[in-house]
Amino acid sequence: MEEFARQRVLVIGDIMLDEFVWGKVSRISPEAPVPVVQVTAESYYPGGAANVARNIREFTSVTRIAGIAGCDRYGDRLLALLRDTDIDIAGVQQDAAVTTTVKTRIIARNQQVVRVDRERKAPLTAAQTDSAIAYLDRTMDGIDAVIVADYGKGFLTQPLADFIARKARLAGAVLAVDPHPHTSLVWTGVTAIKPNRAEAFLAAGLTAAEPVEPVSRDAALLEAGRRLLDRWGPKHLLITLGEQGMLLLEPGEPPHHIPTTAKSVFDVSGAGDTAISVFALGLAAGATAPEAAALANRASGIVVGKLGTATVSKAELLANLAS
Description:
The protein is an alpha/beta fold. It has a single domain, classed as Ribokinase (UDP-N-acetylmuramoyl-L-alanine:D-glutamate ligase), CATH 3.40.1190. The protein is built from 9 helices and 13 strands. The strands form 2 sheets. The protein has a 9-stranded mixed sheet, with helices on both faces. It has a 4-stranded mixed sheet with strand order 3-2-6-7. Helix 1 crosses helix 7 (about 270-285), helix 3 (about 125-140) runs parallel beside helix 4 (about 160-170) and helix 8 (about 290-305) crosses helix 9. The two termini are about 15 Å apart.
């Protein structure tokens, strides 16, 4: 963890704004059988790939991000939030033809009542792709770890994915990918891929099965993992399993299960972002894959105990390890 601060990290992917509307419920609406939320506060956080960058920034000052946002009030707010946390946003394009993705969560009594999404999915244009590749080409040579966060909003295309993978190999950087199963992007030569359980089954082309205890005997999950190792060919496949922790799979190695360390779960928003952030940092800093996965598991266990799109600090992670 002392080496985390020396890592130079670039996050690439779909950036968005997370809006939280906090309130209280005192009655049911006379118009429909739904609660009436009296708003008491509103807060905004970087979301999607921007939340990955925010997690990385907790551990190292050299944090860069590449993505695209609209020239709207949500895009302006998102870039301001990133700028305020000293994240390098030179790789973020702002385009008037783009609609900034916003996820609004309405929270009452520490529970999510409803989520409202504002988005318009569209793949990058040729000009936007060229601009992204030009930025990555001049930036990735000085990077220790590249994290790709694919939320299926259109920023990541196959030409861009191919360039990222090739450039990361040439730069000698760790390349960790959080995939989206519906984009069907092909990732080759990556260091690590981190789907969650549902995404793993979808990407493997299998029907999701109920979790089995112990995880080492979950035949359906292990088969999904085997297929993904064959399909993607990563050095490390880390499947996050919620309350069951994580499963690390590597070619030629037995499955390695890491039980969850979460004491309480208030909000799972952004837990996957924390997991891939700390896993990639661990690998870049010289940890073995099981060590990096254990750190990622600890970090995720901390962040799900917080409300909102949260991050974990170095001090919190060290305290958790000490306990």
